[in-house]
Amino acid sequence: MSSYAERASAHRYIEAVWHKTTDGSHNWVPADGCWDIIFARQPDSVRVFIAGPMTKAKLTQHPVGTELFGIRFKPSIYMPQLPLSTLLDSTVDLRYGRALSPIWLEGVRYDTPNGEAAELFVDKLRKNTVIARDAVIDEALDDQAIALSSRSIQRHFQQTTGLTKKFIEQTKRVQLAEQLLKNNKPATQVASQVGYADQAHMTRSFRMLLGYTPSQLVHT
């Protein structure tokens, strides 16, 4: 049986830290405006890869018993040497090797982190400029006043995330709607509360960004 656990982080670079064990079945991975570094562990090996931002939900599958550990980065975080715009809807392998062997990024050695060490791992990435932060993205998503034109702000989004501000806001809206539905709020009320034109609009958004409909979520 597969299992999934996720925790928030106070780190300003991290959206969430998550852990999953797989049972070999297909699972929907939602489009959430973020990218992840993922460690896929098996008894004698570990694959390390980057899952880029996605424009739509995607079905994934891993061998039975694979242990996945992931660090999901905020939309404002990017890799100067690997533009996220080149990773939309795709993954790139960083390493595949023995389970306890180190990872090398930009010539620097990193030990494979676990859930508790995620923040320390990210701090080391930041210190060695493997990752960086675009403050304009955070400010724009927080609706702060920015002394830039709308075109300049949009350029930041395209260059940093490969996505538009509107698309990232759509992913946040569908996440909020999903949580409200999980809390047993009626679908018509949820659609109105989070700003969808109607329930059909919300259903289309769920299907594209999450891979399933509100009805399927409620009945799982």
What do you see in this structure?
- Helix 4 runs antiparallel to helix 5 and helix 4 (165-182) packs across helix 6.
- The model has no long low-confidence stretch (mean pLDDT 91).
- The two termini are 15 Å apart.
- The chain is an alpha+beta fold.
- It has helices spanning 118-127, 135-141, 150-161, 165-182, 187-194, 199-209, 214-218; strands spanning 3-7, 14-21, 27-29, 35-42, 45-51, 58-60, 67-73, 77-78, 91-98, 103-105, 108-110, 132-133.
- The radius of gyration is 18 Å and the shape is globular.
- A hairpin with a 6-residue loop joins strand 1 (3-7) and strand 2.
Give a summary of the structure in a few sentences.
With 220 residues, this protein is α+β, with helices and mostly antiparallel strands. 32% of the residues lie in helices and 27% in strands.
Tag the structure with descriptive keywords.
220 residues; alpha+beta; Jelly Rolls; Arc Repressor Mutant, subunit A; 7 helices; 32% helix
Can you give the mean pLDDT? 91
User: How are strands sequenced across the largest beta sheet?
Assistant: 1-2-7-4-5-9
- Tell me the total number of β-strands: 12
**CATH fold descriptor of the largest domain:** Jelly Rolls
Produce the secondary structure layout.
Elements: E1 3-7, E2 14-21, E3 27-29, E4 35-42, E5 45-51, E6 58-60, E7 67-73, E8 77-78, E9 91-98, E10 103-105, E11 108-110, H1 118-127, E12 132-133, H2 135-141, H3 150-161, H4 165-182, H5 187-194, H6 199-209, H7 214-218
Antiparallel strand pairs: 1-2, 2-7, 3-6, 4-5, 4-7, 5-9, 8-12, 10-11
